[in-house]
Design a protein that fits this description.
The chain contains nine helices and ten strands. By secondary structure, the chain is α/β, with parallel strands linked by helices. The protein has two domains: 5-118 and 303-317, ATPase, nucleotide binding domain (Nucleotidyltransferase, domain 5), CATH 3.30.420.40; 127-296, Nucleotidyltransferase, domain 5 (2-Layer Sandwich). A five-stranded mixed sheet has the order 3-2-1-4-5, sandwiched between helices. Strands 8-7-6-9-10 form a five-stranded mixed sheet, sandwiched between helices. The longest helix has 32 residues, at 230-261. The two termini are 38 Å apart.
């Protein structure tokens, strides 16, 4: 029986990615980044969508070549339907539809956040069901109870801003370049968390980061008023303090959810799961709590088509296809 070969497309933000998955195994996972956004200090949606149009065909060809797969060998096409930037999603969705139509292949729509969770099945070790997944990115912060590949329940989420946005906006306040989150992480490793920031009080497993961002803003304003060079002299310690606060907020809620559910299979996913402070803190807490922890490789943390293809593979096995009328969505 020939393998199930999925060509996957991801274009939810500013990274154009294509991957080839064979029977659930990632053969290639290619990403084209858009450096042009650095000059604007953030992603410009219209610029991103135009860059996707330039990158999509070369990236797909690269993914097929690297995987050693020809177009005629593809079984189905998976694509990110949302959430994300609508203009960017339209490019990826349109390409996937056209490819599927030209080669008479079934289409599989994939939710971006579901794919972040299933990125854990792109390689070993893989978590056992049920497991809890802390999914953290620039636009989302969720605790997901994962009962099976396609059976997930969000049991906690941010009520306002996401953890990734808190990292990026804080970095911007400190004058860091784009993307600010990874730069803040790098500086935090050189500093000590000596400045206390308030942790929000939220019921259940939900999060809030808007108040933290505001407190960081006023803290910096007050300190700079007394000492204009305060940020420059204390940059690493400020970064370490911000990172420690965000990581503490995230893991306290995750530990609370683990105790409530009794689940000891614990994973993290999403772009912020690449943060070194979060990865290290999860491992420390995991040993203390007796968890089995799972942290994805860096290539499966940020936006990538590999996780889209893995998700599409399980949806293929379940017979979950979509039609040519599937339209992208910016948010659920």
């Amino acid at each position: 029986m020939p393998p199930v070969v999925i060509l996957a497309i991801e274009s939810s933000c500013d990274d154009t990615s294509a991957a080839v998955i064979s029977d659930g195994n990632v053969l290639s996972n290619c990403v084209a980044t858009q450096a042009i956004h650095e000059q604007y200090g953030g992603v410009v949606p219209e610029v991103a969508s135009r860059a996707h149009q330039v990158n999509i065909i070369p990236v797909v060809e690269m993914a097929l070549k690297k995987a050693g797969v020809q177009k005629k060998d593809v079984t189905a096409v998976g694509f990110t339907r949302g959430p994300g930037l609508l203009g960017s999603l339209i490019v990826g969705t349109s390409f996937a539809k056209a490819f599927a139509l030209a080669h008479q292949l079934p289409l599989i729509e994939v939710d971006h956040m579901q794919a972040h969770v299933l990125a854990h099945f792109a390689e070993n070790p893989k978590p056992a069901f049920p497991f809890l997944c802390l999914t953290v990115s620039g636009g989302h912060t969720q605790i997901v109870l994962v009962k099976d590949y396609l059976d997930m329940e969000v049991i906690g989420q941010t009520m306002d801003d996401a953890a990734g946005e808190a990292f990026d906006k804080s970095g911007k306040l400190l004058g860091l370049g784009y993307p600010a989150g990874p730069l803040l992480d790098k500086l935090a490793r050189q500093g000590t968390p000596v400045f206390p920031f308030p942790e929000p009080s939220m019921e259940g497993f939900n999060f809030s980061f808007s108040g933290l961002k505001t407190s960081i803003l006023y803290f910096l304003k007050n300190q700079v008023k007394n000492d204009p060079d305060f940020i420059e002299k204390n940059l690493s310690d400020i970064c370490a303090s911000i990172q420690t606060t965000i990581v503490t907020i995230l893991l306290k809620k995750l530990r609370k959810a683990a105790k409530k559910t009794g689940i000891k299979e614990i994973a993290i996913a999403g772009g912020v799961s690449a943060n070194s402070g979060l990865r290290e803190a999860l491992e420390v807490m995991g040993k203390k709590e007796g968890w089995h922890t799972y942290i994805p490789a860096f290539q499966f943390c940020t936006d990538n088509a590999g996780m889209i293809g893995v998700t599409a593979y399980y949806k293929y096995l379940a017979g979950q296809f979509c039609g040519q009328d599937a339209a992208p969505y910016a948010r659920r």
